[in-house]
Amino acid sequence: MGASETPEWARLNREHWDEKVPVHVASEFYDLAPLRAGEGRLYPVEEAELPHIAPEGWQGKRVLHLQCHFGADTLVLAQRGAEVVGLDFSMPAVKQARALADELGLADRSRFVCADLYDARHALPQPESFDVVYTTWGTIGWLPDIAEWARIIAWFLKPGGRMYFADGHPAAFVFDDPRPGAPTADLDGGPARFPTARFSYFEAQPLDLDEGADYADPDAELANSRTVEWMHPLGQTLTALIDAGLSIDFVHEHDAVPWQMFSVLEPRGDGLWGWPATPWLPLGVSLGATRREH
Ligand SMILES: C[S@@+](CC[C@H](N)C(=O)[O-])C[C@H]1O[C@@H](n2cnc3c(N)ncnc32)[C@H](O)[C@@H]1O
After folding, report:
1. Which ligand 1 atom is the nearest neighbour of the CA of 17?
2. What integer pLDDT is reported at residue 218 of this predicted model?
3. Measured from the CB, is residue 49 less than 6 Å from ligand 1?
4. Gap between the terminal Cα atoms of the chain
5. Residues 261-288: pLDDT tens digits?
6. Does any ligand 1 atom lie closer than 6 A to the CB of residue 117?
7. Sign (positive/negative) of CA torsion 20, 21, 22, 23?
8. CB 69 less than 6 A from any atom of ligand 1
9. For labeling, which of 2, 19, 90, 178 is most exposed (least CB within 10 Å)?
10. How far does Cα 33 stand from its chain's mean position?
11. What is the DSSP string of 140-154?
12. Fold of 3-291
């Protein structure tokens, strides 16, 4: 995608993410202390599941991290011995990732590339060159074409290579916090501001949103607040991966996610936010898949 033909959704979303980078780097949400101490950690969801993706460990594994943001998770995998390539369309994010890699002494096994996901084949022109494609928490909602996303993943994976995905559950994205004045719902433990339906699960049109709040810093008010996002039903995502040449190894639904998706959620003390009592809806979903042999 050349600059002259950048569609409006990509421009709006990139300006939004460019502005978020310094906010996130300065936030407590992205706590870089463990990474700086040489002991970077991922969320409990990934820590529990990644042994299935790399059973022999990360040493020497070639990992492509799509939509890597400013590289914190990418560099956790590098710290464990992987050779990582992070790709993101935000230049401030990529510059920050490179600076972090230098600071951590991981520049020799990490590379950060600035490109739109849909230009990834041009930005990194080596097909079948990765053992693992990794992409987590806040990724496909920014992408219009899930079939092409899946084909790009398949294109980069060696036959037998694995992909790992974790994100908000599409059923949870139907909901949002109730508008001011909306009635409360009775949950276990009393009335609470239970999320109300906002979007159709099957919405195929882009969602034009205008929200200045930021999940990592409740005090931040973003100037570049307009974004364009997409709903992706779970069946479509799974089928896109199968059609692209991957076999699904597992699909796990989770009752907790790494950010306060709804105001009623409570911190669990392990970095995840969950329901106050009964887990009403799946909040997150994760999957592992393997690129089929030719
Ligand atoms: C929520 S973040 C990814 C989360 C990551 N797990 C983290 O917290 O570090 C989403 C990332 O997707 C990137 N992004 C959004 N749309 C993109 C696109 N079309 N191509 C490449 N990167 C994109 C943004 O720049 C942002 O860094």
Report:
1. 25
2. 85
3. no
4. 29
5. 999 999 999 999 999 888 989 999 999 9
6. yes
7. positive
8. yes
9. 2
10. 21
11. GGG-S-HHHHHHHHH
12. Rossmann fold (3.40.50)
